Amino acid sequence: MRVGSIAMAILLLGGPSTAFSAPKSAPPIPSQPSTPQSFTMKRIEDPFGNCKRWYTYQGKRLPCDSHVKNDAENLRPLLSDLPPALAELNEYQSNQRVVRNLAYVGTLGVVTVVAGLLISRSI
User: Fold this and answer.
1) Which of 19, 45, 96, 119 is the most exposed place for a label (fewest CB within 10 A)?
2) In whole angstroms, what is the distance from residue 34 CA to residue 36 CA?
3) Which 3-state string (H, E, C) describes the chain?
4) What is the C-alpha separation between 73 and 64, in angstroms, rounded?
């Protein structure tokens, strides 16, 4: 019954051809497409991971660290004639590994203590 009344209303208002027909006056197609105004994005600087260290050698400013990490590896060619300086560079690089590993172990310890406290309260 309801379907019949909807069909009757469509026929009374002008039929299905007028209900679903396109508008009579469509806007003309432009010769050139319009685009929104472009904008340039500002370069975002990473305040945490992009710390570069430089040194000056024979009037040139050169990077101290390799592209992989802050390890002062680019100083090695300059220090090749000085064995004590190379030994100090090697010690610096090995100490970085030790400190990083200690940071991992310390973090694991703190997480274990916090988890133990939370578990002991829930038991």
Assistant:
1) 45
2) 7
3) CHHHHHHHHHHHCCHHHHHCCCCCCCCCCCCCCCCCCCCCCCCCCCCCCCCCCEEEECCEEEECCCCCCCCCHHHCCCCCCCHHHHHHHHHHHHHHHHHHHHHHHHHHHHHHHHHHHHHHHHC
4) 7
Distance CA 56, CA 62 (A): 6
Place of tokens 């300086």: 85
**Tens of pLDDT, residues 72-123:** 888 888 888 999 999 999 999 889 889 989 999 999 999 999 999 999 998 8
Q: Which residues pair with 60 in a beta bridge?
A: 57
Q: Parallel, antiparallel, or unpaired for β 60-63 and 54-57?
A: antiparallel
Residue 106 backbone phi and psi in degrees, to 5: -65, -40
C-alpha 63/C-alpha 75 separation (Å) is 9
